Amino acid sequence: MMKGPYLAVLLALSLFLAASGMTQAGTSGLAPGETRVVAEVVDGDTLVLDRPVDGARQVRLVGLQAPKLPLGRAGFPVWPQAAQSKQALMKLVLGKTVRLSYGGLRMDRHHRRLAHLHTADGAWVQGASL
User: What domains does the chain contain, in order, with CATH numbers?
Assistant: First the structure.
């Protein structure tokens, strides 16, 4: 049974994806990338890989804007559902092998990879439901 906080996060994600027109079928035009294991989840839209990709280990999931955690920033408020969105991403990918794929810029100004993720069974992480 899905809990209220997860439902709120997934509903917001579903609405965003529906509005953007991005679906599992819509990921077919992406350039396939590297395969890595997820070593850590930073928050609901950022994770750390076990090995770098072109010098970067952090990956920012394209198409998501998850609620933010303070992450060491003094005075930064925890956004509602931030911990739940991190837990949802952990459940999907932590310790698992994922394949990165790209549709545009591959690195942001913080030197994180910008990628879509697919699990070993081919599921698109940004469009996954729990």
Answer: 4-127 (2.40.50.90)
